[in-house]
Specification:
59 residues, mainly alpha, elongated
Length: 59
């Protein structure tokens, strides 16, 4: 489980992308109709998660 959170290999990073990409799309779709402030907060958390993944890919 820890290897999925902080993978040491490119395969682990690919698994993270494979799991989270549909999750991000689902979250964006489900939050489209809620209040703007809450939606922006959730999308901001998704953006931080995406940035973390992109930094992990640059190792």
């Amino acid at each position: 489980m820890l290897d999925l959170l902080q993978p040491r290999t490119d395969a682990g990073v690919n698994v993270q992308w494979a799991v989270m990409t549909p999750a991000w799309a689902l979250i964006v779709w489900r939050t489209w109709s809620i209040r703007r402030e809450v939606r922006l907060l959730i999308w901001g958390v998704i953006s931080l998660n995406l940035a973390w993944f992109l930094i992990r890919m640059a190792h």
